[in-house]
What does this fold into?
Amino acid sequence: MYEIIRAERVAEGISLTVIAPDGEERLVFSFPELIDRGINAFHLLEAPQKYLCDPRSRTVARKQRSG
It folds into this structure.
């Protein structure tokens, strides 16, 4: 899972920019896709730094809180 550095609303849903070992990758997730995965799309747009993404498996997950 890699850091998400940017989340933007696009016509298709939400575009995520992820820092992967090969460089930056951009993925687009539809709103229904995120909702089906239990992701709060509004929160993802507001605080992308609190999430991680695996571009290969198209997985998005909230970071675990430390402490």
